[in-house]
């Protein structure tokens, strides 16, 4: 009778132990995947911010070299205004894009 209990106990533990190991392996794999996804999202966000900053600085540098900076006007929210060769007013947004504005939307620069 003792041998039957011993064999049954070994069989029960032998069959259930791999199931526990599989569960721990799956959980670890899930955690690793979750961490990798989180890292990738952070990297993607950082790369996008760096790209936007680079584009903005580059466009502002080009605008300073090729177009005239307006001393009399600022943008609707205080942005630096540039005047292109055709006399159009624009400012550079945070992503490096030229945003053209009408002369009526401009504000006078406060000289101190």
Report what the structure shows.
The chain has one helix at about 1-65; strands spanning about 70-75, 80-85, 90, 100, 105-110. The chain is of the alpha+beta class and about 110 residues long. It has one domain (about 1-110). Strands 4-3-2-1-5 form a 5-stranded antiparallel β-sheet, with helices on one face. A hairpin with a 5-residue loop joins strand 1 and strand 2. It is rod-shaped. The mean pLDDT is about 85.
Summarize the model shown.
With 112 residues, this protein is of the alpha+beta class. It has one helix at 2-66, and strands at residues 68-74, 80-83, 89-92, 98-101, 107-108. Strands 4-3-2-1-5 form a five-stranded antiparallel sheet, with helices on one face.
Write the layout of secondary structure elements.
Elements: H1 2-66, E1 68-74, E2 80-83, E3 89-92, E4 98-101, E5 107-108
Antiparallel strand pairs: 1-2, 1-5, 2-3, 3-4
Number of domains: 1
Assess the beta-strand content as a share of residues: 15-25%
Major sheet characteristics: 5 strands, antiparallel
**Count of individual beta strands:** 5
What structural class is derived from the secondary structure elements? alpha+beta
Helical residue percent band = 55-70%
What is the N-to-C succession of helices and strands? HEEEEE
Taking the alpha carbons of the first and last residues, their distance comes to 102 Å
Q: How many individual helices?
A: 1
């Amino acid at each position: 009778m003792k041998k039957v209990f011993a064999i049954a106990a070994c069989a029960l533990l032998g069959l259930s132990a791999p199931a526990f190991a599989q569960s721990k392996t799956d959980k670890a794999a899930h955690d690793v995947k979750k961490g990798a996804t989180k890292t990738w999202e952070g990297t993607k966000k950082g790369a996008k911010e760096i790209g936007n900053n680079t584009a903005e600085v580059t466009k502002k540098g080009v605008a300073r070299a090729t177009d005239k900076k307006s001393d009399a006007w600022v943008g609707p929210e205080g942005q630096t205004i540039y005047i292109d060769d055709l006399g159009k007013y624009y400012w550079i947004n945070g992503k490096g894009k030229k945003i053209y504005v009408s002369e009526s939307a401009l504000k006078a620069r406060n000289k101190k």
